[in-house]
Write a structure and sequence with these properties.
Order of helices and strands of chain B: HHHHHHHHHHHHH
Number of domains of chain B: 2
Number of helices of chain C: 12
CATH superfamily of the largest domain in chain B: MetI-like
Number of strands of chain B: 0
Structural class of chain B: mainly alpha
Chains: A mainly alpha (about 290), B mainly alpha (about 350), C alpha/beta (about 375)
Oligomer: heterotrimer
Distance between the termini of chain B: 14 Å
Radius of gyration of chain C: 22 Å
Strand content of chain C: 15-25%
Largest interface: A-B, 49 and 64 residues
CATH topology of the largest domain in chain B: MetI-like fold
Strand content of chain B: under 5%
Shape of chain B: globular
Strand order of the largest sheet of chain C: 6-7-8-3-9-10-12-11
Radius of gyration of chain B: 24 Å
Structural class of chain C: alpha/beta
Order of helices and strands of chain C: EEEHEEHEHHHHHEHEHEEHHHEE
Helix content of chain B: over 70%
Largest sheet of chain C: 8 strands, mixed
Chain lengths: ~290, ~350, ~375
């Protein structure tokens, strides 16, 4: 007979508790999401039944209907189709940005962590400078300098994103360096590159993946923001930020045009975060 | 509360160095990278001769070193250059626009910080299972929101459709701004006793601030919650409770200060994001701050203005981060003597 | 040992990570991260009426059939089972056992300071007649610090690093006497001096990281007794300290006890401390009471094999020396085994084990002065 007499009193943390049902759901969601997005990006026709580029001037600014789920824009193009094709750019470029940034950052961070004091300082000061800029401002400045376009945005965002990976990798390496098995490897003069690849990467990789997934989400937000400002995709390329920017001119007549496309962005970013959290938990940390 | 002069000096030194590099970087971005700034200045339809003339007029045909020297010299005098579009000095435009942005930024920041910390504290103290999941879910949604899109939706629903708030601008069309003291319409109106102007300014602030806060709030409260939850596991909490103190005293006097460190770091970072988000919000609400100025400059390829805005906002960010760095020893006595 | 506050910081606590911003993009937020279970210390509701008070108690603290369980992996495992003992007024009772024996839990339960993952399943705890387990939150707050003082383990971690020593030592006084900090300062400095600390005026303005372990422990004791409690619970007061300091702290505790007429419950695994300061000893193994009796008797002629085992590596009374349980074969039981054990938990390591030990936990033998729970106890001297 175990009757609880005393209420828990001290707010000390005990064993983390997982709600069984919810925890189970979170297990297969992320995988399913990845699959869905990959299908969407590779086969946009599956979801978008119309051509995003064909102009039908007579059918401009129609409200949502069975034929046009998100209605039409000012040139009579199916908004939903434009969104589906547009999100491909958003997701595609964001993925590219983050992967490239992660690669550059990891290499530089590795150099900083494994190399000598000079290398470390060099890399760190460089990241300091890049991180001193508010990230959107830097992206805008770079994009403006290069001239608007999707490649510009790619470059701009990569420049903004790499420092945090450099810092992350460097920090992890510095911590891992102290571990006995690394000391052992160095004692027998294993080349640094091998130490890095064989001993450290397996520890780093899971964390990196988690971070990458989440950053893809944030990169999508930044990308669409830049496009919204006119710095990204140029017409007629559909890109969600640009679509919404165009739609602003017609908000009062066609509310669906400006609002519904955002749902795609939301879906993409939420997916990225969910996937990222799942990866993070798999890597052994609690999501930040 | 004695500070280590060394600590302050080092932080200051680092900040100044970073600023120098930032300024140089900004210069390069505007002068070295763009394909043909002279053409941009002259206008896209100008002929070759006209472009050359403009290039000469604006000093764009001088060697880069030379331009850099002039640029730095100008900066020291507070001269931010000349707009390609208006052919006038940039500083007046900027300095007129800064208070508008500041008002937006400061209020958003305060709301986000204060409520974020309080909600985080409450979440850590009373982790109700259902509401925690709701809040977590809302948090994800919050951070996943594209700021500009959310701003448009707010504008559409609450301003255009329901009419509860104005659609654009800082003040209604027929309201005159209050006499200039700080540049903050809210504060200036209060100082001048103009209650209706104050009310109008506040109404105009609500939606833009909401757009910015929704995005940042989720993150702040999340960091706050995590920080508080970690602190609550520390031994000193148990010892304090063993003395018989109330939970209010425990949270406010004991835990809060300890939990602040990561929260302040996050807030410092968020200021950077805030600056970016502000540009988007200003565009949607036609706010007239430096975000709007930047937007116009972007559309016109007005590089000097882009450069100036980049510079000003980055300097602000550096200063804020410096303050954050200097704040750590204030909160945590263990850091004071490093 | 007491000297002026050192200039340099004593690295007993780690300085928190502060750094320049690490990311340009925000950290992730989680839909379902591990949810820390924080008990709600919400405002005390209910009437002001004190819980039932028994008239003129014989004991300062009576624990009867106490069973404490902790939550682990979805179920509740008992860490302390059917524990009964009493603490008489003015005496010092040492609660001895190895890590995991449940001694700290028992002490925490007396003050109802169990973490959220722990709970009292059955039993009762009475302090000066007050039924601790049925007190409301507000009543509990009145008791803690005022009736019962608590000296936790590891003073360096148990002090709030961002609050001055003065404020923390004064806290019980400020809370219970309703005085302001400034008014409490005289009492604080007096108490600190009483603890053997020099330059208390400077100490009250110092921060925990500026003090050594020994000084912190003295300050901690000061903070626990400043509101003149009746009962003092000390959890391993010496284990974090150097050997030389340990003795001084124990002497301090003795002095404080005699000066203020305190009843002390001393949780420890250090038999040296027991010999120095304890009147009676309660020995716990795997959450069960195995022996209780006068210190002198248990340290020279214990009846329970475990107690004897504890003594085998303990050279002589008077020397501060941590007992080493490596002398005993086998290993302590894990939490699940402790909970599931039907008989005597010590049987896996006992040289005197019999068949009955596996199926039945031995009832008490002996008398009110000295009692033990063993089917096959050590022979009487």
């Amino acid at each position: 007979m175990t009757a609880t007499l005393a209420q828990p009193v001290s707010p000390e943390v005990a064993v983390p508790v997982r709600r069984g049902r919810v925890a189970a759901v979170s297990r297969w969601w992320p995988a399913a999401l990845v699959v869905i997005w990959v299908i969407l990006i590779v086969f946009p026709q599956v979801l978008a039944r119309q051509n995003p580029y064909t102009i039908h001037p007579a059918q401009a600014l129609l409200p949502p209907s069975a034929a046009h789920w998100f209605g039409t824009d000012e040139a009579g193009r199916d908004v939903f189709a434009r969104c589906v094709y547009g999100i491909r750019y958003s997701v595609g470029i964001s993925v590219a940005v983050v992967f490239i940034a992660a690669a550059i950052g990891s290499v530089l961070g590795g150099l900083a962590g494994l190399g000598n004091k000079l290398a470390d300082n060099l890399v760190m000061r460089t990241t300091d400078v890049f991180l001193a800029f508010p990230y959107m401002i830097l992206a805008i400045a770079i994009a403006a300098a290069e001239g608007p376009g999707l490649t510009t945005v790619l470059i701009a965002l990569t420049a903004v994103w790499w420092p945090s990976y450099a810092r992350l990798v460097r920090g992890q390496i510095l911590a891992l360096r102290e571990l006995p098995f690394v000391e052992g490897a160095r004692a027998v003069n294993t080349p640094l590159r091998q130490i890095f690849v064989r001993h450290m990467l397996p520890h780093l990789a899971p964390q990196l993946y988690a971070r990458i997934a989440i950053d893809i989400g944030y990169a999508i937000l930044a990308l669409t923001g830049l496009s919204f400002l006119g710095l990204g995709a140029q017409p007629p390329t559909p890109e969600l930020g640009a679509i919404i920017a165009d739609a602003r001119n017609y908000t009062l007549q066609a509310w669906w045009y400006a609002t519904l496309p955002g749902l795609f962005i939301l879906a993409a970013v939420v997916s990225a975060i969910v996937i990222g959290n799942r990866l993070e938990r798999a890597a052994g940390g609690t999501p930040a | 509360m004695t500070f280590s002069v060394q600590y302050v000096a080092r932080r200051l030194g680092a900040a100044v160095l970073v600023l120098l590099v930032v300024i140089t970087g900004t210069f390069l971005l505007s002068h070295a990278i763009p394909a043909d700034p002279a053409r941009a200045a002259a206008g896209l339809h100008a002929g070759a001769a006209q472009v050359a003339a403009v290039a000469h007029q604006l000093g764009l045909d001088r060697p880069l070193w030379d331009q850099y020297g002039t640029y730095m010299a100008n900066l020291l005098h507070g001269n931010l250059g000349i707009s390609y579009v208006s052919r006038t000095s940039i500083e007046p435009i900027l300095f007129a626009a800064i208070p508008a942005t500041l008002e937006l930024v400061v209020y958003s920041f305060l709301v986000c910080a204060v409520f974020g910390v309080i909600v985080g504290m409450a979440e850590a103290w009373w982790p109700r299972k259902v509401s925690t999941h709701l809040v977590r879910g809302a948090s994800i949604l919050g951070t996943a929101l594209p700021v500009f899109w959310f701003a448009i939706i707010l504008q559409l629903v609450f301003a255009a459709h329901l009419g509860w708030f104005p659609i654009v601008g800082r003040l209604g069309g027929d309201t005159l701004p209050p006499p200039h003291v700080t540049g903050f319409y809210t504060i200036d109106a209060l100082l001048a006793g103009q209650w209706s102007t104050f009310g109008d300014a506040v109404m105009h602030l609500v939606l833009p601030v909401l757009s910015l806060v929704a995005w940042m709030f989720a993150l702040t409260s999340r960091v706050a919650e995590k920080s508080f939850a970690t602190e609550l596991t520390r031994p000193y909490v148990q010892t304090a409770v063993a003395r018989g103190i109330t939970s209010r005293r425990l949270l406010w006097r004991h835990v809060l200060r300890n939990a602040l460190n990561p929260i302040i770091t996050m807030l410092g970072l968020q200021f950077g994001w805030l600056l970016g988000g502000t540009i988007l919000v200003e565009v949607v609400f036609s706010w007239g701050g430096i975000g709007s100025v930047m937007y116009t400059a972007l559309q016109n390829f007005d590089y000097p203005v882009i450069e100036a805005v980049t510079l000003v906002s980055t300097i602000a960010f550096v200063v804020v981060n410096l303050c954050v760095d200097l704040l750590y020893p204030v909160i945590d006595p263990r850091i004071r003597r490093t | 040992m007491s000297g002026p506050v050192p200039e340099t910081t004593v690295p007993e606590t780690t300085v928190p990570e502060t750094t320049a911003p690490e990311t340009t993009a925000p950290e992730s937020t989680a839909p379902e991260a591990a949810v820390p279970e924080a008990g709600a210390l919400g405002p005390a509701l209910g009437a002001d009426a004190a819980a039932s008070v028994a008239p003129v108690p014989d004991a300062d603290c009576e624990v009867a059939d106490l069973t404490i369980a902790y939550r682990a992996e979805g179920t509740w495992l008992r860490a302390v089972r059917d524990l009964s003992f009493e603490v008489r007024p003015g005496e010092t009772l040492a609660v001895v056992g190895e890590t995991g024996s449940g001694k700290s839990s028992a002490a925490l339960a007396i003050m109802r300071l169990l973490p959220a993952a722990g709970r009292v399943d059955t039993g009762s705890v009475r302090v000066r007649g007050l039924d601790m387990l049925s007190l409301s939150d507000r009543e509990l707050r009145q008791v803690r610090g005022k009736l019962i003082g608590y000296v936790p383990q590891q003073p360096s971690a148990a002090f709030n690093p961002v609050m001055t020593i003065g404020r923390q030592v004064a806290e019980a006084l400020v809370t219970h006497e309703g005085v302001r900090y400034k008014e409490a300062l005289t009492t604080v400095t007096q108490t600190l001096t009483e603890m053997g600390l020099e330059d208390p005026a400077r100490l009250v303005r110092s921060y925990p990281h500026q003090l050594s372990g020994g000084m912190l422990q003295r300050a901690m004791i000061a903070s626990a007794i400043i509101a003149r409690p009746r009962l003092l619970l000390t959890d391993e007061p010496t284990s974090a300290l150097d050997v030389g300091i340990q003795r001084q702290i124990l002497n301090l505790l003795k002095r404080v006890r005699d000066d203020h007429g305190l009843t002390i419950v001393l949780i420890t695994h250090d038999l040296g401390a027991v010999s120095q300061i304890a009147d009676r000893v309660l020995v716990l193994y795997a959450g069960r009471k195995v022996e209780i009796g006068p210190a002198r008797v248990l340290l020279t002629a214990p009846r329970h094999p475990y107690t004897r085992g504890l003594l085998t590596s303990y050279p002589a009374a008077g020397l501060a020396h941590k007992s080493r349980l490596a002398a005993l074969p086998g290993a302590p039981l894990g939490p699940a085994e402790v909970d599931a054990e039907q008989g005597c938990p010590f049987r896996t390591r006992c040289s005197r084990v019999q068949e009955v030990c596996a199926s039945e936990f031995p009832a008490a033998s002996g008398d009110a002065v000295h009692a033990w729970h063993c089917h096959n106890p050590e022979p009487a001297p």
